[in-house]
Amino acid sequence: MxxxxxxxxxxxxxxxxxxxxxxxxxxxxxxxxLDLFAGSGAxxxxxxxxxxxxxxxxxxxPLAARTLxxxxxxxxxxxxxxxxxxxxxxxxxxxxxxxxxFIDPPFADNLWQESLGALIGRLSQGALIYIxxxxxxxxxxxxxxSLLKEKRAGQVCMRLYRNDSAEPTDR
Length: 171
What we know:
The protein has helices spanning 14-24, 42-49, 62-74, 87-93, 112-118, and strands spanning 32-36, 54-58, 80-83, 98-103, 123-134, 145-153, 156-163. By secondary structure, the protein is α/β, with parallel strands linked by helices. The protein has a domain at 86-171: Vaccinia Virus protein VP39 (Rossmann fold, 3-Layer(aba) Sandwich), CATH 3.40.50. It has a seven-stranded mixed β-sheet, covered by helices on one side. The protein is globular.
């Protein structure tokens, strides 16, 4: 897989990615996924390779977005779509609910809370939300989210939440 030469692009490491997809293995088949801050697209492409029905890749950097489109063409799949825009703009512009969301923004930009707030109304009932942050980052999540898994490795903390709302979110 090719990665765009973009400053700050930091694909999730192989060991963390393996752990994450072990956590998700039973939820991926036919899932509607969102790779917010897609960057290299490693998480979204892995989800597609493991049976996700679709992945929306959201990436602000034009070069990285173009590389993602090229990778999708190379794989000859129509199950992925690239959106070259700000994550908050994308989340505010649609109503498609997601079953699995990957949130791994550039660490220097501190975009976690903004993204979590913008997810309201975009999650299916029981949706899984993966968040990768610097090790000691404190997050404020929705009251109806439960923390399923958490792991720290080096300077990174990975968390997996579930949207436990009794009703599907508004669409």
